[in-house]
Amino acid sequence: MTCYDRRDVGLLLLRLGTGGVLAAHGAQKLFGWFGGGGIEGTGRFMESVGYAPGRQSALAAGLAEAGGGTLLALGLATPAAGAAAAGSMAGAAALHMPNGFFAAEGGYEYAATLGLAAAGLAVTGPGRLSLDHALGHVLDRGWMVPAALGVTAAATAVVIGARNRRVRRAKEGEQEALFEE
Hints:
Layout: H1 6-31, H2 38-48, H3 54-74, H4 78-96, H5 109-124, H6 131-134, H7 144-180
Helix pairs in contact: 1-2, 1-3, 1-5, 2-3, 3-4, 4-5, 4-7
């Protein structure tokens, strides 16, 4: 008989909470559920803040959050799920960075917390109360953790870097227009 310890229960609670919140945010982006904009509305927003093309950015963020969150909650493919969710939250944190840390001021606190929790779960693993454990960890091997986090970090750096360049060019264009007036 298998006895689950408090670590397993704690990881289950962390996975359910973090994964559930991420999945709900992804559903807002993908389907317009819970007051979200769906692909079209989220795509317009993404474009307006420098993530272009907007529709594809909305789809990528929605899939990373909904898919990564759902998989985290289930404890399935935990390294990939945690990395995907962490990458999406890094993109959200980059957007909120100019507003400072605290979420009450529009800062990156919330996105950073979700991203760090997702990354922590990717590193720690899902515990024994998970589908990964039930399936013999075929989608949760040790080598998958650095691979998933490394690939996600590289892709996220490229996306955020491109977004920051677009935002910087737009601000420079606005300043030039002011001087011309």
